[in-house]
Design brief:
heterodimer, A: alpha+beta, Beta-Lactamase, 4 domains, 6-stranded antiparallel sheet, 5-stranded mixed sheet, 18 helices, elongated, B: alpha/beta, Rossmann fold, 5-stranded parallel sheet, globular
Chain lengths: ~600, ~130
């Protein structure tokens, strides 16, 4: 459309230029004024069309009808301009009659075939009319190319010949141009369809990938199911989606997640396999479309579905490695909504979803086992604790001399027994910590804002004496300018973490060495480093360092007793508060444990 | 000061023994009861100067109940006369477990906690402190 207008600027200027050339350079006898006027008129109405087109392009919402009308109006104006041009430039003798071809081609490209023929017919009619009127003497004939002696316009053979050839040329060119254009358009349409299909396929793939990624990025079963239903509904562009899982007995399908369904519909009840041939069919591995809910006899709750506004359904099986998990179902408010591509798509989603659901289920089962194990350990250690503490109480009473004086040999044995029971007590306490940290007790604890710098100061102070006794330099480095390093945890836990790391560092550092604790904040992360110049940790021991009951061989050689639980507890506590612990070490050179915690903004008073 | 009476309410015979020896050596007269009910009976009978109470006995809350009964704010309570006897509570609740509580007028009206295992010297020190020595 804009293209037509742009070309017309050239046409207007062309008419003006050609008139000037013919008049001034070629000195032809021309009706100069009318020709200039035609050129100016073309430019003028073209400007008006341009203005209207701009208005139309800016209008929202878009309507195609005014554009069509505008095209036809423009061509109408062009007819008038062309007819006038031909008349004033010599009627049938005018070379300007060839200019009608341009419009013929333009019409063939922009308009329908019928419109093109109509245009050709109109052009022929106008040219014939000008020729006839001049021949009849009703319109004056203007000589342009020669004198009146030639008077070709009065020659009937010339008139009929020009009109005949013009008409045939117009129609043949209209036929050729519109045929070529029709073919091009057909190809173009094919390309558009193909690229649309490709785009659709790409979108589906992308969606499938998105669904798979969303679903696989979590191991929480509820999250997996919720994401599956919501993403599936939006990917299929339908109102609702649900997942039903098979119960343990394999007799009924219960609702596990829904999206876009009313509470009442969800509560309608489980799908009983015995009464539900559709569900049975889906569970056997088929994706099934219910084109019209109100007429399908395979449904268990057709009236409930109709009341919910559901008119068609698509169900795909969720199949795990060990058998059927359940089904995923999409609901549409339109009858016959789902295509076979939709069915393929849902089947693909179901396949991805099944893997994610199975993983989440396995993860949950593992968590339950872990929880059970922790509860067991918690109970057992509680039971163990009581007798051990009684034994220690009795032994201490004895050592304190309340049951009479002991011989040196007796005292030696009681000391050994006490030593062992002390260790037993530590072991039990550590186990209790570990189990308590993994049980729901940990979730119930109340977190407070803990200032790490204060905690470090507290712990370092506590270890000043033991460090001095072992002739170890204990350093505390804190970059104060970094801002507060406040985290959300409990004071006891943070103390325990620091205690474990600092006492380990002192324990495994020989006399004359150095233990340093450094704290700094970078961005919203607090970084704590406990470094020593101790015996170090062998490279092959590093991956096992945080495992329960593991002790590095050189640590065992150095200090005989140790539960191997300290670092496991430490890491447990750190991860509980969203932190991380890493370790770097070189045998004989020293070890650095680095902990990071997310900083919590302190509420200003 | 001499012959002050201490009542130990604890169902663990061995632990009672571990406390009895140092306390008697320190000059106290020691009585014991193996359950909460028996403990309350003995309070009336013995009229102790200080009570050592185990937090968990046959039922997990027996210790709490004994302390709540003895410290009842009701002036007509049958134990009103004994509400001022200091109570030391024995706990095995480990320091780092997230379960945390302290002496509380309303819920746990005791004067102090004694951690198990018993350090004999520390026990005597604590007992003396609460008797105002």
């Amino acid at each position: 459309m804009a293209w037509l207008i742009n070309i017309r600027w050239l046409a207007g200027v062309g008419v003006l230029g050609a008139t000037w050339v013919a008049d001034v350079l070629l000195r032809l006898t021309l009706p100069v004024v009318p020709l200039y006027l035609i050129g100016v008129a073309i430019l003028l109405y073209n400007a008006i069309f341009r203005f209207i087109l701009n208005r139309l392009l800016r209008a929202e919402p878009r309507d195609l009808r005014p554009f069509d009308f505008l095209t036809k109006t423009q061509i109408g104006f062009d007819w008038l301009a062309m007819t006038a041009l031909i008349h004033f430039s010599g009627g049938l003798e005018s070379p300007a009659i060839f200019y009608f071809f341009f419009h013929n081609i333009i019409a063939a490209i922009l308009l329908s075939r019928r419109a093109t023929y109509f245009y050709a017919a109109m052009a022929a009619l106008l040219v014939a009319a000008v020729g006839s009127l001049e021949y009849a003497g009703i319109l004056p004939h203007l000589y342009v190319l020669g004198n009146d002696a030639a008077a070709l316009y009065r020659n009937p053979f010339f008139v009929i010949g020009v009109v005949f050839f013009f008409v045939t040329t117009m129609f043949v060119s209209a036929y050729l141009a519109s045929t070529l254009n029709a073919r091009l358009r057909k190809r173009e349409a094919q390309v558009v369809t193909l690229s649309q299909n490709l785009l659709n396929a790409l979108t589906r793939l992308q969606t499938l990938y998105d669904v798979a990624e969303a679903v696989n990025s979590t191991l929480e079963l509820e999250q997996v199911l919720d994401r599956l239903v919501s993403r599936t509904a939006s990917a299929l562009g339908v109102r609702a989606c649900s997942i039903r899982l098979l119960d343990e007995a394999g007799a009924r399908l219960y609702v596990a997640a829904t999206y876009g369904l009313s509470g009442a519909y969800v509560k309608k009840g489980d799908l009983m396999l015995e009464q539900n041939p559709l569900a049975r069919e889906v569970l056997s591995g088929k994706t099934i479309t219910v084109a019209d809910v109100s007429t399908d006899t395979r449904l268990q709750y057709p009236t409930a579905a109709v009341a919910e506004g559901i008119r068609s359904m698509l169900s795909a099986p969720l199949q795990g490695k060990k058998g059927s998990l359940g089904l995923i179902r999409a609901y549409s408010t339109a009858v016959n909504h789902f295509t076979s591509e939709d069915a393929d798509f849902l089947t693909a989603i179901a396949r991805e979803g099944s893997i994610a659901i199975e993983n989440a289920m396995a993860f949950r089962a593992l968590g339950q086992v872990d929880e059970m194990k922790s509860k067991f350990v918690l109970t057992v250690t509680h039971e163990l604790r009581s007798p051990v503490s009684v034994v220690r109480s009795l032994l201490r009473t004895m050592m304190a001399g309340y049951v009479g004086a002991m011989t040196d040999a007796q005292r030696d044995i009681v000391t050994r027994v006490l030593h062992r029971t002390d260790f037993l007590q530590t072991l039990i306490d550590d186990l209790l910590d570990l189990a308590a940290g993994k049980s729901e007790l940990a979730v119930r604890e109340e977190r407070v804002l803990v200032r790490l710098d204060e905690a470090v100061e507290r712990v370092v102070k506590r270890f000043e004496v033991p460090a001095q006794e072992k002739q170890i330099r204990l350093e505390w480095l804190c970059a104060r300018g970094d801002g507060p390093t406040t985290i959300s945890a409990t004071n006891e836990s943070v103390d325990r973490i620091l205690n474990n790391l600092v006492s380990n560092a002192i324990k495994y550092t020989p006399a004359g060495g150095c233990v340093s604790v450094a704290l700094r904040a970078s961005g919203n992360v607090a970084r704590l480093e406990v470094s020593d110049t101790g015996i170090g940790i062998p490279e092959d021991a590093l991956p096992h360092l945080f495992e329960e009951f593991y002790r590095a061989p050189n640590a065992k050689a150095q200090v005989k007793e140790g539960t191997g639980l300290g670092l496991a507890i430490t890491r447990d506590l750190i991860t509980r508060y969203g932190g991380q612990i890493t370790v770097q070490s070189k045998v004989g050179r020293g070890t650095t444990f680095a902990i990071t915690f997310p900083i919590v903004a302190e509420l200003s008073a | 000061m001499a012959n002050e009476k201490i009542l130990i309410i604890d169902d663990d015979d061995d632990l009672v023994h571990a406390m009895r020896l140092p306390l008697e050596a320190a000059g106290f007269k020691v009585f014991s009861a193996a359950s909460g009910d028996e403990g309350l009976r003995q309070v009336k009978e013995v009229k102790p100067d200080l009570i050592i109470l185990d937090v968990m006995m046959d039922t997990t809350t027996a210790g709490f109940q004994v302390s709540l009964t003895l410290r009842s704010p009701d002036p007509k309570s049958e134990y009103a006369a004994y509400s001022r006897i200091p109570i030391l509570m024995l706990t095995a609740i480990h320091q780092t477990t997230p379960l945390r509580f302290g002496p509380d007028k309303e819920y746990l009206p005791v004067d102090a906690f004694i951690e198990k295992p018993i350090e004999p010297d520390k026990l005597i020190e604590q007992v003396r402190a609460h008797l105002g020595h």
